Amino acid sequence: MFTNSIPQSLSPALKSHLETQCNFATELSRKLFDTAQQLGELHLQLAQDLLQEWNSASQQLLCARDAGEFMSLAAAQLQPGSNKLRQYQQQLGNLVANAHVEMNRTAENHLPEASRTAVAFADEVVRKTAEETEKATQRQREMIEKMHATGRHDGAGRSRETGKQSDQAH
């Protein structure tokens, strides 16, 4: 999976957070795929039902003897077709509601862990930043101390040389 390709140089907290996010995204994707599959099946079932109804209705309409019989057969076919559409609409509503419940359940299951790993990673970043800041401050102090020490030595040496030169000039 994706988490196997995460570089080893990443911090454990970041790696854990990325794995958690990947698991969350994977499960959400599975739920969405399942819902899309169910939606496809529902559409296909509606199409098959409507085609069967249309085929049956067209056979009956073709056998009509006169315009009156044709009109009465056509009117009779409207009810089953509208019932199929109403049933489809109800199944579609149930499918969407179930998908919504599943997405919420998935989020409820994964978000606490994602939040925990995000906080752990943020804590690690703060800790490492503080450590690096302290190291940089220490290096700056050492550099300033070296500069002061070098300045004292150079300053003391120059004043002696300047004093020797002025003594020799007199």
Describe the protein's architecture and organization.
The chain is mostly helical and about 170 residues long. Helix 1 runs antiparallel to helix 2. The longest helix is centred in the last third of the chain and has 103 residues. The model has no long low-confidence stretch (mean pLDDT about 85).
Extract low-pLDDT stretches: none
Q: What characteristic shape results from the CA principal axes?
A: rod-shaped
CA(first)-CA(last) distance: 87 Å
**Counting H and I runs of at least 4 residues, what is the number of helices?**
2
Spell the H/E element sequence. Answer: HH
Which range best describes the helical content: under 10%, 10-25%, 25-40%, 40-55%, 55-70% or over 70%? over 70%
Largest sheet descriptor: none
Secondary-structure-based class equals mainly alpha
Gyration radius, in Å: 40 Å
Secondary structure tally: strands? 0
Could you write a compact summary of the structure shown?
This protein has 170 residues and is mainly alpha-helical. It has helices at 12-62, 67-169.
Q: Which key features would you list for this structure?
A:
170 residues, mainly alpha, 2 helices
Per-chain topology:
Elements: H1 12-62, H2 67-169
